[in-house]
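FIELD: query
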Amino acid sequence: MTDDLLALIQALPPEERARLLAQLGPGDAPARDRSGAPPGDGAGRAARKGVEGDISLSNDARINGVAVGVNLGAIIYGRDPSEDERRRLVWYLSALANDLWRLPLRGLDPTLAEGPGVELSRVYVMLATTRPTRLAAGRLSELRSYFADDALRPAQKFDPDFALPPRAILRTSVGDRAVSGGGGLPRAGAPDDPVVDIARAQIVTEALCGNTRLVLLGDPGSGKSTFLRHLAWALARRGLDQAGPDTELFGWEAERQLLPVILPLRRLAGALALAAPDAHARTVHQALCDVVAGYGVQAPDNLLTDALVRGAAIILLDGLDEVPIEATETSASRLATLRAARAFAERYAKTSFVLTCRSRAFTDELRACLDWPVETLAPFTLGQVRHFVPAWYGELKDRGQLTAAQAERLSAELIAAIAAAPRLRSMAETPLLLTLMALLLFRRGALPRDRPRLYEEILELLLGQWDKVRDGQSLAEVIGRPDWTSERLRPLLDRLSYEAHLAGSSLDGRGRLERGRVRNALIDFFKAAQASEQWAWGAAQRCLEYFEQRSGLLVPDGAESYVFAHLTLQEHCAGRHMLLSREAVGQVLARRAEDRWREPIFLGLGVVQATNPYLVEKVLRTLIDRRENEKEKPAARWYRDLILAAELGKDRDWSYLREQEVDVASLQADLRAGLAALLADRDQPLPARERVSAGFLLGELGDPRVPITPQAWRREVRRAMDGDTTGYFCRVEAGTYWIGSGDDDPEAADAEKPRHQVTVDEPFYIARYPITNAQWQAWGRLFSEYANDSDLNGPNQPVVGLQWAWCNQFCAWLTEQLHGALPPGHVIRLPTEAEWEAAARGGDTRRYPWGDDWRADHAATAEDQAGRGWKWSVPVGCYPAGAAPCGALDMAGNVWEWTASVWQSYPKANNVFTDKQRRALRGGSYGERRTDVRCGARVRHRVDVRIDGDGFRVVLAPRSHTCSDF
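FIELD: result
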C-alpha cells in the first residue's frame, strides 16, 4: 500500500475508512485503534511524550525509520519474519498498547476518563502475592543493615510501611538454623550472631516466571485485571523494541519477549455456548483469533498459531468469576469454560497462561478441575500506598488538573489520613478503593470512613455531573423538570442496576440493558410522577440522548444497549435496590448463596445502616436462626449462613452497631455457639477453606471453646473431673501404649525406632487444642515471637515462637491460678513424649490420629494448603474429622508441639544419643507433608529456639520427674 493511498484513506470519514480497510487483503491494512484511525494518525499514536518520547508508528510499521518487531517476530516464527508478518505483528502490538495505556476510569471520573487520561504505567504499583520468598539470609552480623536497632525492627528502606514489596521485610526468622518461611523479631536471649532468614513478598511477575500456568486470585478491586493490562502493555512495548524503565517486569530478563493476548472469559463462555460440545479447544483458538483481529490484524491465525506452538505467547484469561455458575442460552457454565481453557492449554504446553478470578469464586471443584498453581494477591501495604498516591496526584498535575503545591498537599493529606485511621488503612489495602479515595479527596476535599459511603459519594459525584449545565442545559432542564435533581432518578437507576446484575451479559460481568427497556422504564417512571403519557415519551427520549452525550454512570454499549460504566457501581446500586426494597430480608435470603451477589448484599447493608440499623439486625438474626433449610445438607446451608452473618457483622462494625442500639450481645452469643457447632461437626459438611474462615471469625468474636480466664480454666477442670468428655480436657486412660515406628514403616526415621510399649500408670487429661494466642496473652508476662504478625497472631491461632522454658513458665503460672481446683498431686504441664503419643494414637499402632490412611482434609498441613486457602497456621480445631481417639484435635499438623522430654534415643535403639540442650517436639506443623505429621514422627529443637511452626499444648496430670528441670 502506498503512502499516497494511506493519506487518502486517512482523509475519509471514520465509517468510510473502516469499510474500505475491511476490504483490503491480508497484510495491506494498517492496524486501527478504537477510533478507527490507523497508527500513523495522531489519534492512534503508540507513544506519549514524557513516558515514551516522541515516538510514533509510521504507516509502514516503523518507529523513527527503524523496523521494529523483528526480534519478537523471530521468536514467534523461528526465523526472521517477512515484511508482511512483521507489519501485522507491529500493528497488533501498537494497537494493543494504545488500548491499554490509560488507567480505566470510565464510570469513576468522567472528566479524567474522557479527558487527557491517567497513564497506567505512571501510577501502576507492582503487586505482590501472599507467598513469602527469601530476601536475604546469613549471620546477623552480616545483615545488620536491614534493621534499625537491636530489636531488629526493619530499617525504613526495608519497612513495609515505607518500602515496596521487593525490598520490604515480610518476616524474619532467627535461630540455630534458618527456618523457611519463619518470622518475628528476636529479643533478649538470642544466641550471639545467630542465623537470620529474611523474607519478603513474592512479586506477581516473579510467580509468572516460575510457572507457565498460573491462577491469580484476589478480592474485588484488588488489581487482577489492572495487572493483566499492565503486563500486556509492557510486553507490547517490548515487542515494539521500546523497552524502558516503565516496561520493567520484576524478576524477568530485560530481553524476554512474549506476544500478549487478553481474553475475557465471559466472551469465551459466550462463544462456547454456540459451539459444538466437542469443539472446545477450537473455540478457544477462534476466540483468541477474534481478539487479535479486533485490533485490525488481517488473517491473525498464522501469527497466533506460530506463537502458541513455539511458546512465544502469553494468554491472559481474565475474570472467571464473571462467567455464570450455571449455563444459560448465551453462556457456557463456569466449569465448562474452565475445562475448555484447560484443554486448550494442554494442546500448547510451551505457552504461558494466566487466569484471574475472585478468591471466593474459585471453588475446590474449579481448583481440582484446573490443577494449576494458585497465587493470591496480597493487600496493598502502606509502602505501596506511599508510592501510588504521589504518582497519582503527580499525573493530575501533569494533566493540568492540579498545581504542584496542590498535588504535594493532597498526597501528604491522604497518606497521613490512611496511616492514622485503621478503617481507612483497611480500605486502602484494595487498589480500587485507594483510587476512589484519591479521587474523592481531589474532587471533594474530604474522605468517607466506610466502603459503602465511599461508593455513595462516587455515585453522588457522577450524578452531580448530570445536574451541571452542558451545552446550556442540565439533565433536569433537558427532560423539562427544572425542579428535579439527579437524586430523583436514583430509585430507577437502582432498579436498572439490579436488573443489569441479574443479566450480567457483558464481557466483564456488567449487564446489558436494551435501549427499549431503559426507555420504557423511564416512561413508566415519569408517568408514576403524574406526567402525561405524551410528555413521558418525549422526556424519556431526551433523557436517553443525554445519557449518550454525557458518559458517567450509564453509558451506551453499542447502538441498542447500555451498561453501567463500572461493575462496582452496578453492584453497589443493585445492593441499594435489594436492601431499600420492602422485601429486603427476602432479597438477601434469595441471593445469599450466589457469589455474584455477595458484594451487592454487603454494600446494600452499608447503605441502609445509617438510617435503619434494625434492618441490619433483622438480616443478621434471620441468617443466624435459619436452622431449617434445604433438605439436602441442611447443616451446610445453615453453617454458611452463620459465616455470612459473622462477615456482615464484622463489615458493618460490631462496635458501631452497638452504638446504634442493635442487640449485638445476643447476636454475637448465638454466632459463637453456631460457629463452635460448625467446627465441632465431624462430618465436615463444609470444605476446609470455609471451616478455616469460620474459625477466624469465631476468634474475633471470642472463641468459647478455649478457656482464657482463670475462672474458665477452673470450669474446664471441673468438667474433666466430672467425667464430661465434651470439654476442653480429653481423658487418656492408664494402660500400655505403643510408641515409635517399626521397620515396616518406610517413612520412619531412625530416631523413631524401634516401636516399643510404654505404660501409663495413671490417667491424665490432655488439652483438646494447642494453647492459643489469646490464652498466652492472658498471662501477659512474655510476648511471643509473632505477637505483631497478622498471619500468626489471630486470637484462636496456636501461639508460636516460644522458647521451651517459656512454655513451662506458663504452665507453672496456670497451675498456681488453679490452686485448689486441681486434684491432689496434679499440675498443668507439658506432656512427655510418651504421654503425647499415647493420646495421639490410642491403644493401637495407627499412623495418624484418625487411622492408618492419609486424609489431606483431616489436618492443616502443606498438603492441604490449597484446600484451606491459608499458608500459615489456622485457628485451632478446624479439622474435627482428624480427632485422636481421646478427642484431641490438631495432633497432626498446624504446629509442632513442645514436650517435656529431653531429646534422646528410644530403648533398644541402634543409635544411642542424649542431648539435654534439645527437647522433642511432636505433631508436625502447617508447613509439613504427611511424613512429618505421623503419630510416630519426632523432631528436636534447641530450648532457646523460637520459630513460627512451634507451639505447645498442656496436660492436666500428676507431676512428672521428667519435668524436674523446669
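FIELD: remark
The first strand starts at residue 62 and ends at 63.
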